[in-house]
Sequence to fold (353 residues):
Amino acid sequence: MARIEKKVLDNRCPRCQAPIEFNPKLGLFKCDYCDGKFTAEELKDMTTEENKVTETSVEYVNYNCPDCGAVIITDENTAATFCVYCGNTSIIKSRLSGEFAPSKIIPFKKTKEDAIAAFQGLKKGRHLIPKEFINEKNIEKIMGVYIPFWLFDVTSTGDLQIDATRVNSWTSGDTHYTKTDYFKVEREGSMKFSKVPVDGSVRFEDDIMNTIEPFDYSSLVPYNHAYLSGFLAERYDVSKEDAYKSTEDRTVKSTKEEMLSSALGYASKVVTNCDISLHNDNCEYVMLPVYMVNVKYKDKFYIFAMNGESGEFVGNIPLDKKKSVIMSILLFIIIFVFILVISYVVFKFGGSN
Fold:
């Protein structure tokens, strides 16, 4: 395994050599000591020759969770003290060479403070949220994580054979007529799909990612290990081959639906033959930014996730059953008292008449 000195893994300010981290709000690397601001390219170009390294020579810290199997990666200066998926604190630290590195990455644009504000905002209008769900302990666990993704460029080519009908109806006198014409319809064509995303993580639920999408893929930049400073990254556990199988299903379905929709003016359409072939034009392994925290409540996990680029978020919210019972009882008492008052008023004043 390739090893390098610690000074290479430290992201150092080119001006004063103090530690420097990526600032999502600025979209730049900012030095808190000399107030220097740099892009990733500038940071790389201004680094002295003795400190320059290639991505494959960088050594990362690898955290493995023995409970849920998650493998989390970060730089040497970012500590992971718990598993972001199950909260297990008995994670195992080891070394990992830079061979896992993706080709591109979307850097964080939202800060941890933005994620905390969104998390705390979950309680607005939700009076049955348990107090312990949004306490300081859980807020501290909110962490920026780069989620692995495969992006495929695919070309589909094929033809579709369709049995179609066209129906005309009219009335002459007292007689109603219906005429049905039958057609053999064929469609041929090709489509190009750009950057079809497939989640490279088994543990990160697809429904959650679909909710916080989309990501702006024009924001993808060449991967630089410096972007991991202060953040975690999950190592992919879905192979490129398995991910492509998912892409095949989606692109074939989309191609078929597009060709079928181009057959216009028919009352009914039935596909009798579908022959679609795919060509994988390109594949990129990228990382997308997500803030997340898994909160355990009553032996069940509830996940909060926020798009680290756009700020879109989703949260599974537990209900405090004790609060629910108390509020139900209070509501019953209020309604009961209201009915008694109305009955008393009606009886008293209605009876006097």
